[in-house]
Amino acid sequence: MERFFIGFALFVALLFGASLYRIAAGPTVFDRTIGAGLIGTNAVLLLVLIGVLYRRVDMFVDLALTYALLNFIGIVALAKFFERSRETDR
What we know:
Blueprint: H1 2-25, H2 29-54, H3 57-89
């Protein structure tokens, strides 16, 4: 079972690469924002997987929830910023 979790963690790490590509090559700023949100989501998943592998799920779930909250607040703040900057461009 441990091999499965290690393989899944490697797959999530590969998803980081796809998200980084979306950030670097995204044609619009919204594509880049979605890529940043996806990296945050993948990081939360990876934290929980690490917790399972180390058999300390309770500690890593707390860290993952904190990181998810910070990621959500950051993405909402970025969206508000772009919404306001779009209004001033008109």
